[in-house]
């Protein structure tokens, strides 16, 4: 689906979607439990993949008519051997989290995904399963899906790098709680995307599971049960998705734009508020009400590291293209291993729109002072975050921007273009 965005202003109020990160973890946690209700979930392509995985391991997921509640009948910490291959589609979170689940089953689990997912690194997690006494391998021997996992593992100590994906640690902690011995995760390198592990610890605590940070990494004791208080867990709003709305307000709000659903949580991507403030945005966050107000502002370039907030890189790149001066995004090599290489993708697509961009392995530099964005035909790279960030750029580019692959917003923000239209953006689709 092609989407056209013409230069236009935004105003009014928008509701942030529920958090994808919390929804994934809550669905799987309910699977590890005897069952639970997950309220206000994000129902998207990625989270549906996690629902299918829970069902493959012996649970069931019932959705309400309006998708506001998931009633999950779990497998009580003892996953069955799946009757078929688990297709994780485009969801790297699903694949990593439920690979560790497969290591608990008394038999063989096979996991695969689409072409993009089959190119993403899984080797450190496979090695961790082997350290626990399970079998785990890539069918092509390259550390990428399709994956074959055989259990059951009982727990132990694993050593794993922390600078490839924090999802490996999340997977091991969630599975480790229901092993006999528990799992100690020793980090070989500095942990990147650390706030995502804090999200995991927060969700585990809500489900009655204790996991702790240690001097060397993390530890979760075995023999625990997943039991959320009252049998229910409510998903908070998503700051990763919220970043596009906040950026739209800072760049194109005719008066002001209110974004609702911004309750404080462990999400590292709430750093977008601080980043916008540092760039000079007129932005206010009422934390008690969960409302952020933004107004069109003159922005200035800054230097910002994304070691803990990789999903913000596309948003920051667009802000940098409009800001005066230079914006330098550092510590971003791991952002190359997402649905696409987001560093190169943003460099190339913003260049098509007239931006002055320099790309290095671990750094993206945008010279906003040398940039006048103009409408162009750009490629969303089948990546929801690339699509949404380019849509924000289209709001302030001279003329019309045509984005290929607009349907991929279904991964994390299915009604993104409806929301954009409702707040005043000039949006049209060819569907």
Automatic annotation (TrEMBL):
Its EC number is 2.5.1.19. Phosphoenolpyruvate binds at residues 20, 92, 120, 167, 342, 385. It is an enzyme of class 2 (transferase). The keyword Cytoplasm applies. It catalyses: 3-phosphoshikimate + phosphoenolpyruvate = 5-O-(1-carboxyvinyl)-3-phosphoshikimate + phosphate. Catalyzes the transfer of the enolpyruvyl moiety of phosphoenolpyruvate (PEP) to the 5-hydroxyl of shikimate-3-phosphate (S3P) to produce enolpyruvyl shikimate-3-phosphate and inorganic phosphate. This is 3-phosphoshikimate 1-carboxyvinyltransferase. It comes from Halorientalis brevis. The lineage of its organism: Archaea, Methanobacteriati, Methanobacteriota, Stenosarchaea group, Halobacteria.
């Amino acid at each position: 689906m092609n989407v056209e965005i013409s230069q236009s202003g935004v105003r009014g109020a928008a509701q942030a979607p529920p958090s994808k990160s919390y929804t994934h973890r809550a669905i799987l946690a309910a699977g590890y439990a005897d069952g639970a209700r997950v309220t206000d979930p994000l129902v998207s392509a990625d989270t549906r993949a996690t629902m299918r995985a829970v069902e493959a391991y012996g649970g069931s997921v019932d959705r309400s008519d309006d998708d506001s509640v998931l009633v999950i009948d779990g497998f009580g910490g003892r996953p069955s051997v799946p009757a078929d291959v688990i297709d994780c589609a485009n969801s790297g979170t699903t694949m990593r989290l439920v690979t560790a689940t497969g290591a608990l089953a008394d038999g063989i689990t096979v996991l695969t995904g689409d072409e993009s997912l089959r190119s993403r690194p899984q080797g450190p997690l496979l090695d961790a399963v082997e350290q626990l006494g399970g079998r785990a391998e890539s069918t092509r021997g390259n550390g990428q899906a399709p994956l074959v996992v055989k259990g059951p593992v009982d727990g132990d100590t694993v050593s794993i790098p922390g600078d490839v994906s924090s999802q490996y640690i999340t997977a091991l902690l969630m599975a480790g709680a229901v092993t006999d011995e528990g799992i100690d995760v020793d980090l070989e390198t500095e942990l990147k995307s650390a706030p995502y592990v804090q999200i995991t610890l927060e969700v585990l605590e809500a489900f009655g599971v204790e996991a702790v940070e240690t001097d060397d990494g993390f530890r979760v004791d075995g023999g625990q049960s997943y039991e959320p208080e009252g049998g229910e867990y409510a998903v908070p709003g998503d700051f990763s998705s919220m970043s596009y709305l906040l950026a739209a307000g800072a760049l194109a709000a005719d008066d002001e734009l209110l974004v609702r659903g911004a309750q404080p949580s462990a999400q590292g991507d709430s750093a977008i508020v601080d980043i916008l403030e540092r760039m000079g945005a007129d932005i206010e966050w009422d934390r008690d009400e969960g409302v952020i107000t933004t107004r069109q502002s003159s922005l200035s370039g800054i230097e910002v590291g994304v070691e803990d907030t990789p999903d913000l890189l596309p948003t920051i790149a667009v802000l940098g293209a409009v800001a005066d001066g230079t914006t330098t995004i550092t510590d971003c090599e791991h952002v190359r291993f997402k649905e696409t290489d987001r560093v190169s993708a943003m460099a190339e697509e913003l260049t098509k729109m007239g931006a002055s961009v320099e790309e290095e392995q671990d750094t993206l530099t945008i010279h906003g002072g040398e940039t006048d964005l103009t409408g162009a035909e750009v490629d969303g790279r089948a990546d929801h975050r690339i699509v949404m960030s380019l849509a924000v750029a289209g709001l302030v580019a001279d003329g019309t921007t045509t984005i290929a692959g607009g349907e991929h917003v279904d991964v994390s923000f299915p009604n993104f273009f409806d929301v954009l239209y409702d707040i005043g953006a000039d949006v049209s689709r060819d569907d």
